[in-house]
Amino acid sequence: LTRPRLFSGIQPTNDSLHLGNYLGALANWVPLQAEYDAIYSVVDLHAITLPQEPAVLRHRTRVTAAQFLAAGIDPVRSIVFCQSHVPEHAELAWVLSCITGFGEASRMTQFKDKASREGTDGSGVGLFTYPILQAADILLYDADAVPVGEDQRQHLELSRDLAQRFNHRFGETFVVPRPHIVKETAKIADLQNPEKKMSKSLGGSGCLDLLDDPKASAKKIRSAVTDAGREIAFDPENKPGVSNLLTILSALSGTDVPTLVSKFEGAGYGDLKKEVAEAYLGFVEPFQARVEELMTDEQALDDILADGARRARALAAPKLAEAYDKVGF
Ligand code: ADP
Ligand code: NA
User: Fold this and answer.
1) How far apart (Å, rounded) are the C-alpha atoms in residues 232 and 226?
2) Could you identify the atom of ligand 1 that is nearest to the CA of residue 188?
3) N or C: which end of the chain has fewer CB within 10 A?
4) Where is this motif: 'KMSKS' region (predicted)?
């Protein structure tokens, strides 16, 4: 293997991914397959940091994998697998948790934010140690690069610290991963609250779920919040709704924003929304057809995931064995 290695994952916490997940993650993962030996995981161990219904989780894991494939992740060229199929993730996470400081883990802002909003009484300890499992995901594969959004930067920093600490204490074992910040990563905003990012947790008419009825989604786009002005300009500060629609159209059509802005000179918001809806339908209809096809042959999908797990384990098992040996097991 001469190409650098890359790891990324998405939690199977919903049936449908949304357009933000697609444009912010999956659509970037596809071209990265040409540069990297890419490993893409449906991270179901992470999903159970919040309560999940077993049968629902099992379905969501499959349908999330199907969406990876429908988006263009090639399971032959890349490794596509389900995290729980590779026990080394949990095993390495334990070792790493023993070299993570309690204060260090407590400083993770994602946990702090959640704890301050909702308290910790109802949460499992897994929600607290989650970034350590994330470090194990990355370090097991000697991943050089991890595509991350701003919100995951601190967790990647922990992965780097843990790799360096382990190497220092026990001898050179892990590659220290670097963040791969995808240039111009589309940050997709909620259609109704364009100052917030599109998210499942906001849900509702501002969130475009990829597996929803396309006609209903087109309607959501036509009802997107814009602003009182008339001019189609890219100005995220003062025109977040219009700018978000331009970002979406640009990402879906491959046309850059300035070109779109000059194209829409003199046109109205309705024209822009109409074109965004058309571009979205042009993408989502074949996407849904591919997901449906993958979901009708459950055995074939399970075979793909089993093959991915076998190939992932072939990398993870010797790495864990090396770490165990260094620790004194
Ligand atoms: P959600 O916020 O809906 O819970 P996740 O946090 O599970 O989504 O994110 C999964 C992946 O999708 C991550 O790589 C994240 O950066 C990306 N992502 C999520 N929402 C957006 C968005 N609105 N715009 C761009 N990328 C996003
Ligand atoms: Na999230």
Assistant:
1) 10
2) 24
3) N
4) 197-201
Beta carbons within 10 angstroms of residue 175's beta carbon: 18
Residues 211-248 have pLDDT tens digits of 999 999 999 999 999 988 999 999 999 999 999 999 99
CA 21 to ligand 2 center in whole angstroms: 10
Task: Tell which residue, 244, 232, 294, has the closest CA to residue 269.
Answer: 232
Nearest 5°: CA angle at 67, between 61 and 68? Answer: 90
In the block, residue with structure tokens 């300009």: 233
151 is in an annotated binding site: yes
Which of 16, 17, 18, 21 should be mutated for ligand 1, with most atoms under 8 A from CB?
21
Express each pLDDT in 246-289 by its tens digit: 999 999 999 999 999 999 999 999 999 999 999 999 999 999 99
Instruction: Burial-class residue 152 by CB neighbours within 10 Å (0-12, 13-18, 19+).
Output: middle
Question: What whole-number distance in Å separates Cα of residue 94 and Cα of residue 88?
Answer: 10
The answer to whether 199 is annotated as binding is yes
**Sign (positive/negative) of CA torsion 105, 18, 181, 139?**
positive
CA of 167 to the centre of ligand 1 (A): 32
Ligand 2 centroid, distance to 292 Cα (angstroms) = 25
This model of the complex carries an ipTM of: 0.93
- Cα angle at 128 between 28 and 53, to 5 degrees? 75
